[in-house]
């Protein structure tokens, strides 16, 4: 379970913008008098990627890219490509962008791989899916990953951060070809996040239960089935490397331990001392980068 601060409006690393007192007050009233309306509003907020306070610029040394695109169910996914060789796909997390995994690009290109980074649905330059602009779901993100790999060829590896790791896991479970998977602080099990979301927005069990029902209707599957642990025991899963820091307040380190324990041919690399911003510092952490490169090239 992810611990939260004494102020329920501040959860995780605090990279996401805070929820205003006005929004929290309105949710508290809806919890009492109109929980159905509160659940409807909460569902739209849940499906809206946040504005993450991190740079959209690529790190120094990344060579010029070539724009690429793919389509899933008629929706455009924007991306960029570097180098030549077997493809390695980079999949950012919720509210992220291509640049968040930019540190991996130059070393992978120098190692002889073609690197393809994408923007997930309703993120940056990619189009939304079936929901309103600015909204998406894990399932749509997984479909987008699947479409990109179908377009540009079987993956030597897919490197996914947070929700991007979960999207990659589901794409592979649906038949996407990948020889290796690298998960950076993969998104944990669903109850962790709905608890955090409930605390941040100041509503109670009536809206929480309605939100869960609406989300299951939207993705057409039980929320419990969205956990990586559900698909981890599959015998045909590719080898997996998870890199995670126990200080990470945004995704539970214990979930990574659980996944490695049941995923065939999986390994966990533990980083140390990345602090409250571990969830994002991991993306620029040299030992994490080196471990991923070694695993992909093995």
From TrEMBL:
GO molecular function, one term: hydrolase activity
InterPro entries in the record: AB_hydrolase_1, AB_hydrolase_fold, AB_hydrolase_sf, Pept_S33_TAP-like_C
Top-rank taxon, per record: Bacteria
Ranges of residues in domain AB hydrolase-1: 88-220
Any GO CC annotation of this UniProt entry: membrane
Domain Peptidase S33 tripeptidyl aminopeptidase-like C-terminal: 230-275
Signal peptide boundaries: none
Keywords, ordered alphabetically: Hydrolase
Protein name: Alpha/beta hydrolase
Organism: Mycolicibacterium diernhoferi
